[in-house]
């Protein structure tokens, strides 16, 4: 008739084994070196900065409030003076930047 028979292709044309996962492995390596590793490094530096906060340091909170550390209450909390006679207690993790360190 007018219909031609369809034949299956040979099995030698496909990727096999690790060749199929090679693009995924390369993408993971690129993500690790350009995204994951720098974030881990920055988080480690931020944690060290927070651990070194002392009385008299000028800091910026996560909300953008500038102040001076007047007292380190405990491992999670510091007292910050944001104006003359105005002191607030701030969670240590919410301090985003130490502007000037005391000697």
Textual characterization of the structure:
The termini are far apart. This protein is rod-shaped. With 103 residues, the protein is of the alpha+beta class. Helix content is 29%, strand content 29%. The protein has one domain (16-100): SH3 type barrels. It has one helix at 22-51; strands spanning 58-61, 66-72, 77-83, 86-91, 95-100.
Provide a short characterization of the protein structure.
This protein has one domain: SH3 type barrels. It is 29% helix and 29% strand. The chain is built from 1 helix and 5 strands, in the order H-E-E-E-E-E.
Strand proportion, as a percent range, falls in 25-35%
Average residue pLDDT = 88
**How many domains make up the coordinates?**
1
Net shape: rod-shaped
Number of helices: 1
How far the N terminus sits from the C terminus, by CA atoms, comes to 96 Å
| CATH class categorisation | Mainly Beta
Strand order of the main beta sheet, please? Answer: 4-3-2-1-5
Number of E strands: 5
The level of helicity is: 25-40%
CATH fold field value: SH3 type barrels
The rounded Rg comes to 29 Å
Biggest sheet record: 5 strands, antiparallel
Low-pLDDT sequence parts:
none
Order of helices and strands: HEEEEE
